[in-house]
């Protein structure tokens, strides 16, 4: 197992903009290598235990981390919602310090980025952001692993995200800007990405030389290689009184075969769970253009790359 120089300073994995291009490319390369040669990494976490904090329900994140840690020879402990929201039952700092007494790393899927920052500040072990309200770096890393398996030169890829400006699109466009990938974000009015993330991405795009396009006009999608979408209804809002209003507002932004043809796109991605016939049609989700299950599998390999990098210094 080779040790990549670019990853030697990786202490936590909290947000996409904390890594530079060489570090991200190294993680992508490492993820693909682990996927192709899992036996070579089967003892990286031997004797190590990882505490997994989950404030929010999960399928792919929980399973991919749990089984991925096992494939690296480690032990994962799931800490679910029975402990309540971080900071309520006990301080985040106390939570971090206590877990650091027992665990060798902390994975956290939480409501607030403040919780992630608090854990990282007070823990004496590495912290991995498995989702918060601002970022979803593990998802974005897996997405670019998936893209690199089809497009060896990521700088030639044109990627469009269609839908709600959220934590997934935040991480996706930040990582795209760092890697030099042309990125288009198309969202309904009032559902754009948050301003500070946009400004940060613009600066990163200027540095890398890629093109960043932000628009409310679905007809301005232009030529794309890949179209990405996510649910229009945030987790916990499924029964909201505003659901019908949101669905009506987002209806023109559905990703379907017509939109794929209009953009000349040859791949569709979705981080799941998918609300079929809302943000994406069943026909497209189940088609050969869809790489959603390859994308889901790559969550495990991408996260394992992060864990290997953290424990291979």
Task: Outline the structure in words.
This protein is α/β, with parallel strands linked by helices and 313 residues long. The chain folds into 2 domains: 140 residues, Rossmann fold, CATH 3.40.50.1370; 157 residues, Rossmann fold. The chain has 11 helices and 9 strands. β5, α6 and β6 form a beta-alpha-beta unit. α5 packs across α6.
Descriptors:
globular, Rossmann fold, five-stranded parallel sheet, 9 strands, 41% helix, 2 domains, alpha/beta, 313 residues, Asp_carbamoyltransf_Asp/Orn-bd
Counted beta strands: 9
CATH class of the largest domain: Alpha Beta
Low-confidence runs: none
Radius of gyration: 19 Å
Strand adjacency order, main sheet: 7-6-5-8-9
Q: What is the SS-derived class?
A: alpha/beta
Number of helices: 11
CATH-scheme architecture of the largest domain: 3-Layer(aba) Sandwich
The gross shape turns out to be: globular
Order of helices and strands: HEHEHEHEHEHEHEEHHEHH
| CATH-level-4 superfamily name of the largest domain | Aspartate/ornithine carbamoyltransferase
Biggest β-sheet, characterized?
Answer: 5 strands, parallel
Total domain count: 2
Q: Average pLDDT across residues?
A: 94
- Strand share of the residues? 5-15%
CATH topology of the largest domain: Rossmann fold
Keywords: Transferase
EC number: 2.1.3.3
Domain Aspartate/ornithine carbamoyltransferase carbamoyl-P binding: 12-149
Catalytic activity: carbamoyl phosphate + L-ornithine = L-citrulline + phosphate + H(+)
């Amino acid at each position: 197992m080779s040790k990549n120089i670019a990853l030697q300073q990786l202490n936590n994995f909290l947000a996409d903009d904390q890594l530079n291009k060489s570090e991200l490319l190294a993680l992508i390369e490492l993820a693909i290598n682990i996927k192709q040669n899992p036996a070579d990494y089967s003892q990286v976490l031997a004797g190590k235990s990882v505490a997994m904090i989950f404030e929010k329900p999960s399928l792919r994140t929980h399973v991919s981390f749990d089984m991925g840690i096992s494939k690296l020879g480690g032990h994962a402990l799931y800490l679910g919602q029975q402990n309540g929201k971080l900071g309520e039952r006990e301080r985040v700092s106390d939570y971090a310090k206590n877990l650091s007494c027992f665990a060798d790393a902390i994975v956290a899927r939480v409501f607030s980025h403040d919780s992630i920052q608090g854990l990282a500040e007070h823990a004496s072990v590495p912290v991995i952001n498995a989702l918060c309200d601002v970022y979803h770096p593990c998802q974005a890393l897996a997405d670019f692993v998936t893209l690199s398996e089809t497009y060896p030169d990521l700088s030639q890829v044109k990627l469009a995200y269609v839908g709600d400006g959220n934590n997934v699109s935040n991480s996706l466009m930040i990582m795209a800007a760092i890697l030099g990938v042309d990125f288009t974000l198309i969202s309904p009015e009032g559902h754009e990405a948050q301003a500070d993330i946009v400004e940060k991405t613009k600066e990163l795009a200027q540095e890398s030389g890629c093109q960043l396009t932000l628009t409310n006009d679905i007809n301005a999608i232009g030529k794309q290689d890949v179209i990405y979408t996510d649910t229009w209804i945030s987790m916990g809002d499924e029964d909201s009184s505003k659901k019908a209003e949101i669905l009506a507002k987002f209806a023109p932004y559905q990703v379907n075969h017509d939109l794929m043809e209009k953009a000349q796109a040859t791949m569709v991605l979705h981080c799941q769970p998918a609300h079929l016939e809302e943000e994406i049609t069943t026909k497209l989700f189940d088609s050969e253009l869809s790489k959603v299950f390859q994308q889901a599998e790559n969550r495990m390999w991408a996260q394992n790359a992060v864990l290997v990098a953290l424990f291979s210094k």
